[in-house]
From TrEMBL:
It comes from Cryobacterium breve. The chain crosses the membrane at residues 40-66, 78-97, 134-152, 158-181, 193-211, 246-264. It is found in: Cell membrane; Membrane. This is Transport permease protein. It holds the Pfam family ABC2_membrane. Keywords: Antibiotic resistance, Cell membrane, Membrane, Transmembrane, Transmembrane helix, Transport. Residues 41-271 form the ABC transmembrane type-2 domain.
Amino acid sequence: MTETDLRTDAAASRLLGALYAGNARSVMLRGWQATRSTNWLVVVSGFFEPIFYLLSMGLGLGSLVGTITTESGQDVPYAAFIAPALLAVAAMNGAIYDSTWNVFFKMQFAKLYEGMLSTSLGPLDVALGEISLALLRGALYATGFLVVMQALGLNLSWWALLALPAVLLIAFGFASVGMAVTSFMKTFQQMDWITFLLLPMFLFSATFYPLSVYPQPIQFVIQALPLWHGVELVRGLTTGQVDPGLLWHVLYYLVMILLGLVAATRRLRTLFLD
């Protein structure tokens, strides 16, 4: 190895050492302990919200609607149509809450990250730790909801077993981008924009009715939304409509995760280290 290579490796090691100490787990465990002791009721309420939607709309309204024809031409009961969408929404909501409001409080009021970054932890440790906590919450919501779907007979295919890793991917994507976006927020009024954007995405991402009911220009807008990709991915798995096109949805979330991680790490470094 030449002297130039040694200098390059040393520079890369210093850069990585400044960004990542390999201890993201401690950040996640600290957040989990705080959640268990103070916010457990909020966590539990978030678990039941999609179940209430499923019972009221899937079973109640579904008795009037009957079956829905999916984009691939398959007829499925209305409850089985909206259940995977609500599963994706459950993962999104669990991940978003922890990666936005909790992160905002820790960053702007508790000043927690300043203390963390004064130790050996790097900004990537903090980002990964907080995102992992949000991912855990999204996974808990999704796992419980998937069990409810199975009990109600709404998983129409064995492919539904892959819905759980798919939901983890969705939660990871929203948590990464959520934390990156929150790092730019300064006031509660700005944070309200996140809720403002999530509501129409929840309602119009082919959650309760097929994409084909919209005019063509609006369909293009909806297909750019991250939740639509999550809904289509999970719905394809739970209804057995599996084809290579699902890989595009996976790729969408992989890019979303990468961009969110990079942006969140850079923002933490800019805010607290530079």
